[in-house]
Amino acid sequence: MCLPYINLELRFDIWVCRGQAEKEFRVEVEAIGHVRHKNLVRLLGYCVEGIHRMLVYEYVNNGNLEQWLHGMNQHGVLSWENRMKILLGTAKALAYLHEAIDPKVVHRDIKSSNILIDDEFNSKVSDFGLAKLLNSDKSHINTRVMGTYGYVAPEYANSGMLNEKSDIYSFGVVLLECATARDPVDYSKPADEVNLIEWLKMMVTSKRAEEVVDPNLNVKPPKRALKRTILVGFKCVDPDADKRPKMSHVVQMLEAVQNAYHEDQSKLSQVGSQQSLEETSNSADA
User: Fold this and answer.
1) What is the pLDDT of residues 22-36, one digit of tens each?
2) InterPro entries under this entry (predicted)?
3) How far apart are CA 37 and CA 40, in angstroms?
4) Which of 46, 121, 165, 245 could be bridged to 82 by S-S, CB 3.0 to 4.6 A?
């Protein structure tokens, strides 16, 4: 595919690919190139040269989620509100890929570094280099295991059987990473904290859920919002793929969490205003 001259900043992904037929690559990339959603980075073109592959995307200029969560961004700490906005946008993009088009698209490499962020903190899912198409008459496809350690669903890692439930697991890992600002796997941590999911389960079981939130957050989320967010993440990373919710259901759950968060914030604001009024009244009486 040749690209016409466009007055845009572009992003290029270049890699060596062995074992994927050129025809298969072209079919999949051209299908993905016609996908349009506000939370998906637009794929503008591609190039194939022997075993080399290049994808050309629109440029998104505010870094990626991994940079914001793990201190690689110089602009400060990502607020809880913006984290939820980014997660909700990402969930909507995946719901579109899985449920709104046929054949559905399984991204296969959902991770924090593949979620780009624009100036208004809208998420843009990027990097479709590993994506696979799944026709509606198939429950799964068998393919070579690809993806990033810590984010890959266990059933896919063990058997190579891939469907949209694999993306849902990866999204759940990203969600839990977003709440805690911890890597999915971190060998610098004590042994019982190396695996993010197992550590979180231990903390929740011990009724210490409030302790897991990113300590760098300037304003911590209310307990109810934090617990509900973690619960959504746990549903997504259920070891039994059949028990994981569809992405459209994840969107609904995150919207409910977001609404509850705003309600709690409004109540806290009202309490604060009432206390200020009482203090002012007491001062006047004195």
Assistant:
1) 666 776 677 778 888
2) Kinase-like_dom_sf, Prot_kinase_dom, RLK_Ser/Thr-Kinase, Ser/Thr_kinase_AS
3) 5
4) 121
Between strands 52-58 and 115-117, the pairing is unpaired
Does the pLDDT at position 153 exceed 90?
yes
Percent above pLDDT 70 for the chain: 84
Average pLDDT over residues 82-99: 97
User: Taking the model in full, what pTM does it have?
Assistant: 0.85
127 is catalytic: no
Under 8 Å between Cβ of 189 and 203:
no
In a domain, 52, yes or no: no
CA distance 219 to 84: 14
Contact 193, 181 (CB under 8 A): no
Annotated active-site residue in 13, 102, 109, 183: 109
How many C-beta neighbours within 10 Å does residue 5 have? 5
CATH code at position 141: 1.10.510.10
Total structural domains within the chain:
1
